[in-house]
Write a structure and sequence with these properties.
The protein is of the alpha/beta class. Strands 4-3-5-2-6-7-1-8 form an 8-stranded mixed beta sheet, sandwiched between helices. It has a 6-stranded parallel beta sheet with strand order 9-16-13-10-12-11, with helices on both faces. It has a 5-stranded mixed β-barrel with strand order 17-18-19-21-20. The protein is globular. Bound molecules: adenosine-5'-diphosphate (ADP) and magnesium ion.
Length: 700
Amino acid sequence: RRVTASQVRKALEHEVNPFTQEPHTPQYRDILEARKKLPVFLHMDEFFKVFNENQIIIIEGEPGSGKTTQIPQFVVYSDLPHNKGKIIACTQPRRITTVSAAKRVSEEMDVELGREVGYSIRFDDMTEPGTTFLKYMTDGKLLREAMNDPKLSCYSTIILDEAHQRTLATDILMSILKGLAKRRPDLKIIVMSATLDALKFQKYFSAPLIKIHGCAHPVEVFYTQEPEPDYVEAAIRTVLMIHRAEEPGDILLFLTGEQEIEDACRQIQLEAALDPNFFGPLTCIPLYSSLPSQQQKRVFDPPLPPKTPNGPPGRKVIVSTNIAETSLTIDGIVYVVDPGFEKQNVYHPRIRVNSLLVTPISKVSAKQRAGRAGRTRPGKCFRLYTEEDFISELEEESVPEMLRCSLAGTVLGLFKIGVKDLVRFDWVDSPAPEALLRALELLNHLGAIDTDGNLTALGSIMAEFPLDPQLSKVLVVSPEFRCSDEILTIAAMLSVPNVWLRPNNHRKKADAARAFYTNVDGDHMALLNVYNNYIQNQLDVSWAESHYLSAEVLAEAHNIREELMWMMERFEIELMSIADEKKRCLAIRQALCCGFFMQVAYKGDEMGNYITVKDNQVVQLHPCCGLRTQPQWVIFNDFILTTRPYIRTVTEVRAEWLLEYAPVYYDLTTFQDGKMKKALRKAAKKYIGRPNDADTEEHR
Ligand code: ADP
Ligand code: MG
């Protein structure tokens, strides 16, 4: 039986909700009227015709046309999956949009979130087995599921949304699904994109393309005459200028990260409050991934009413990361302020770590941003760069994550699902051979694959954990050091955003509170102490806040810890701890060495300069680092490039541990001559003949 658009339209108007058998609420009808106006809704006939006749289809439509919220619902009616016991999945690159889409769609369908419609993101599952038939999930989550069930047999339709963002996970999923389609003729696949990339996907899959024509209004674009030396300051000035001089309509400002956004919001709010009677009340709302979900919802609130009956109307200013570029559409935006930057995850091949860097956006991004101003009526976009720079400095399109990030985790995942030949793998865009080699080299050093390129038993377990291979390795080997209980906590704490709060007007107090947790043994121990204190205080929110710790982040770490603990149980990784405090600290640092021996720096001089091992990059300890001394050898978790290169979350280690737990990487016969080699050699002499020498192989 094939469902047609007219049948679906009839079903939507029905008195009774077909999924719950309850009568529809008035809210359902209100939202339905708004949905009917979405461009996607107007393409329903075409959708069912093409979807019924093809296994794979591509959909292209500008942001806000209704792809994320409507298409999965169309599929629900077409599939009637609740009759077949299968699930429709819709993937999103970001956690925040996964959750917000699921919430919105559960409202639109008049069902309870977590029942018929749910979501699943790393460490947080809001679905009910047997009941949920539409599941929004992150692309990373679906990729993990593919590792354990390569046929993805519980799904009837998989929708890859925001494919144009070209995240690593979505790219890999495209390759996997293309192969899987042949083995599962019953599986339907929809790839959705907001940009012209759709043509590329259409070719890759040889599938039909549905183009959703939006109703974009013209957007007038303004450039600055001169380059702006300080884009944040210029952005704030521009927002206030719009508020004072332009017609009513909300403003969307793009900035790069949490701190920048919070600071800008505060300043805009402050300056706008100086003359509220003359210029109407202004509400400034931040939007970034780590924002608590209750606050995220605020972006959809209407602007404030005028202060006096005939006064100027209120205005809403959203200050957002590039979440608002294509993933989340906020109605009512008429003005866009685009400084031209975003934060991108970039791999530094020399230091072998990923880090977030503020980088210029691409032309495609700039056009998307401008387009956000023309959703409801003609709008204006203020670009805070010159037209010459737009033409000559910005790249045409953004570089896919595949081509700029470390591939170690991805390659490990591919090995796990049985892909052996990485060169002949059907990539959407092939990564550079060096990037693949580097990933293989790292996995080999970690002991996840052997020298013939086969997955080892250790690697197979490492791949199960939703962590970077380095951290996975530490967790899996930690029982050998009898400190798996503590490493589990540290792994959870390394998987969440920054816990330390540092409000602008309380910086001194916050720093003092933080100093209380700093630990001579390093920042990893400080994270452990913070968590343990949080547990001792019964996960108390006010305790956390009075210690300048984010209760939200700690709660997340707690969840992650539970989840990881459950996984450890499943793989029979024992939870162990050492009673003696000194020995315990030592063991933890040794265990960390087993995974992070490639993220090591050596003290270069007395001025605080450190030099990274093998690649000789000069770095400094980040100002927030708790080490009071400058130890000879340290491992670090992050590399940050701001005014200068910093390493963050740093812990002291010993040369002999590096030699012991990573003998191949620290092979002195091939190690570069210099101070570091001398120090290692000295340590080697001391350490030869020590009783635990024989354990070396076992720890690798
Ligand atoms: P697309 O995926 O094509 O960008 P969406 O399906 O996300 O489009 O959005 C369709 C419409 O639904 C937009 O007008 C958007 O503003 C609205 N919308 C989405 N989520 C919410 C929400 N949580 N609250 C109110 N409106 C929403
Ligand atoms: Mg969308």
